[in-house]
Input
Amino acid sequence: MKAYLFFSLAFLLLSLVQGTKTEGRGTTVKVFHVYSPQSPFRPSKPVSWEDSVLQMLAEDQARLQFLSSLVGKRSWVPIASGRQIVQSPTYIVKANVGTPAQTFLMALDTSNDAAWIPCNGCAGCSSTVFNSATSTTFKTLGCDAPQCKQVPNSICGGGTCTWNTTYGGSSILSNLTQDTIALSTDIVPSYTFGCIQKTTGSSVPPQGLLGLGRGPLSFLSQTQNLYKSTFSYCLPSFRTLNFSGTLRLGPAGQPLRIKTTPLLKNPRRSSLYYVNLIGIRVGRRNVDIPATALAFNPTTGAGTIFDSGTVFTRLVAPAYNAVRDEFRRRVGNAPVSSLGGFDTCYTGPIVAPTITFMFSGMNLTLPPDNLLIRSTAGSTSCLAMAAAPDNVNSVLNVIANMQQQNHRILFDVPNSRIGVALCSTATSIINEWEKLKSLHDFSSRIARTRLFMFDGLAGRRLADQPCHHFKKYM
Output
């Protein structure tokens, strides 16, 4: 029976790849989780499951407070959102900066615009800094540069454009600079970013941040001629930290068979990726949610956004309460407990329903793997969603990165749309491989199994290989 299920899974994954064809290869960059072996930000000592969940919740709360504080207040999005970006970015990419290149692990953030990197001579920065003196292409921008008008709190002293950004209990003073940057083999000349000169307070920045928002200083805007303001990513699951996801830049190589929903424009928050969430379904039942809880309002900033920096999806209180109550009803009479900010946890096995976010023109149906955060022993699981922070500005619904995992999220700014498709075969194979490895009495049989499969992205056969061979295709 297990062998039958395994081969059924293999053929299912094969069909999924063939249904997510792409045109060309584009430029693809590996994306790592902050706790992956490739990351210097992972905890130096083992952390219990409960402590890691509580830490992520605390960081997420700060993230949500930041996003909520943006609505209706300013016309420019600050670079970072506080402790959760400065100390714990969720997903990072390798970026080469300067000539000759110096490598940094920069956090991805779809809700911010500008980039910043700690530079040599910085007071309060970590030991990993950019040595601008050795780069032959480095340039400091003056106060007359047009980019100086696009940063907040700019200061013009001594002819150099600087700006001061606050991060929770810390402040960061940066010079506005330019240098080459490359996430792949494509070198972007004269890329504008903040070169950090001083940090104060308890929050020390790591190796920088790369803003993927829609503002004038974002990576999208500065590489518009190269990547046409189009990108997508497939984020690796928390359960497979040894493997990477992908960031695909440019329109080439993006999925052709993909459902999309229009992007909405908010002049007050032009950087954020707003979409029209029209309903939520738990199992087969449409949840009764007040229209005001989902409505888009440019004046107040209310509505729904996709965000790469938030870990767990947050819904405004009326929407979350309705979804949570229906989720509990569908699970049944199992005892409910809480853990930190999660109010729907179970200490035994449950059969969880799917949750579907219904957008204009597109549905995103999430299986239990995108809905439940589970302990390593598997004895405890929690609904990985929560209500938005309880303050007057908390009007945002945020589709967070755990709910995006194992999906390719397409940001197509020229065509004003966001799309969602299943990730490519390689990612799906690895995720299912991790599940199958838990079947100890079956693992040796899996290791001996050889599959004939086709990689639709690469346009080639992955023929007659052991299952573990497919790990390298991440």
About this structure: The first helix runs from residue 2 to 18. The two ends are 29 Å apart (CA to CA).
